[in-house]
Amino acid sequence: MKKYDYIIIGSGPAANHLLFKLARTDRTDLVIENNLWGGTCPNTGCQPKIFLEGAVRPVLNTYYLTGKGVKAAAQLDWKTLIKRKKEIWAEFRAEERSSIESDQVDTVFGSGVITGPHTVAAAGEEYEGINIIIATGLLPHHLEVPGSEYAITNDEFFDLDELPKKAVVIGGGYVALELATILQAAGSEVTVLQHSEKLLRPFDQEYVEKLTEMMEERGIAIHLNMPVKAIAKNSAAYEVTAENGQKFETDLVIDASGRRANVDGLGLEKLGIKFDPVKGVAVNEHLQTNVPSIFAAGDVADNGQMNLTPVAWGDSYHIYDFVENGLTEGIKYPAVATITFTYPQVAQVGKRESEMAEGDTVRRMKLGSTFAALGEDDEEAELKVIFNKDGEVVGASEISINAGDDINLFAPLIGRKDPAEFAMNNLGFAFPTLANKLDVLFR
Questions:
Q1: pLDDT (0 to 100) of residue 412
Q2: 10 assigned binding-site residue
Q3: Is 137 annotated as a binding residue?
Q4: Is CATH 3.40.1160.10 correct for 2-140+260-325?
Q5: Whether the model pTM is above 0.85
Q6: Can you say how many angstroms the Cα of residue 296 is from the centroid of all Cα atoms in its chain?
Q7: Is 108 known as a binding-site position?
Q8: Integer Cα distance of 427 and 441 in angstroms
Q9: Is 178 annotated as a binding residue?
Q10: Is 176 annotated as a binding residue?
Q11: Which CATH architecture has domain 148-257?
């Protein structure tokens, strides 16, 4: 039985960033992967999504600017775009596995099954590891309704050769609204079916409502409180039936109803490792499971954080410091910014206005009247910043075309009592950008 210092099940961001750290040591590592090397984010998640958003953005930008200095909106060539995407990703996938292999790092393609506190079986062999890291991420949730097999998920979406004339997107989170944005910009007739009364729950709901209005104005039909009862296939297309009996004819059904922990087949039950099938593997302040030699990191860890790539990085860094450097202090997560790649974007870091405590205050800045926003016809752009009673920045939300970039300004300011002084004295921002208006906001 071959022995390693670390056995990592999964090859996504959590695994990669732990390997980056371990490369500075003489530790031996084994990475086991049963799907796409690199994990969800670069293959079927945020990276291909932002790639497509790069083409969608000018289409929608020119749509709003038509008659305001632009003669006509750009048109998206779906077949050419997807062909280019496949070519780029084929190169990435061909190199990803070999890029992590070294004299210290071995890889195995197969499903890892934890057989003991220090052993993992994969591809017909058993391996021994001093430390075992579960970094398997999440899987798409599948609706439990008749005909659910007719729906695709984001796993298949990014390789669609043909653009559907009509598409029904089931869900109301990041994935649902981002894919709806892409499809509508490309020319599809899009319907969104959300089972509850709210969309994008982690975000400021005032800005989500503004986003919803703008999506509907562009022709996206959004139905709230519309749980799906069944999906059927007829000779020409599909039919989605809601619980209220309403029917929607479509050429494509996308199940974006959520994601769940990728824990199936890991052998957790046999070892008594505690987990929730949706939230993931239970961990302590050092990311250990109830079996101390076995850790969980990233989206599969039930760590109380949002499922974001920077959180996975932080998990990996903490495991490294705990095991290699004897760190005793539990993990502390910084404020991590998050964004929807819709049009406009909605971004968030720290507290939302709805989470304000007694003594907190909110300051708003209308960004739509700035020359930069006027030049892009981003008239709905707005920023709000939350301060606590001591004057510390505790949260920020923004809706704008550039919200994702803007919100990063506030991550290093979270918790500072001197945000204006710190920003103005230590950070020399380019002019004229939002950053140069912080002094106005902080007065």
A1: 87
A2: no
A3: no
A4: no
A5: yes
A6: 19
A7: no
A8: 16
A9: yes
A10: yes
A11: 3-Layer(bba) Sandwich (3.50)
Percent of the chain surpassing pLDDT 70: 99
* pLDDT tens column, 344-382: 999 999 999 999 999 999 999 999 988 889 999 999 999
For 86, residues 6+ apart whose C-beta sits below 8 A from its C-beta are 159
- Cβ–Cβ contacts within 10 Å for residue 111, how many? 17
Q: State the pLDDT at residue 443.
A: 66
Q: Does 52 count as an annotated binding residue?
A: no
Ranges in the chain, pLDDT < 50: none
Per-residue model confidence as pLDDT tens digits over 239-297: 999 999 999 999 999 999 999 999 999 999 999 999 999 999 999 999 999 999 999 99
Domain ranges of the chain: 2-140+260-325, 148-257, 344-442
CA nearest to 150, candidates 239, 273, 29, 37: 239
Is 177 within any annotated ligand binding site? yes
Do 314 and 331 touch, CB atoms closer than 8 A? yes
326: annotated binding-site residue? no
As its CATH architecture, domain 344-442 has 2-Layer Sandwich (3.30)
Does 315 appear as a known binding residue? no
Q: CA-CA distance, 156 to 164, in Å (whole number)?
A: 14
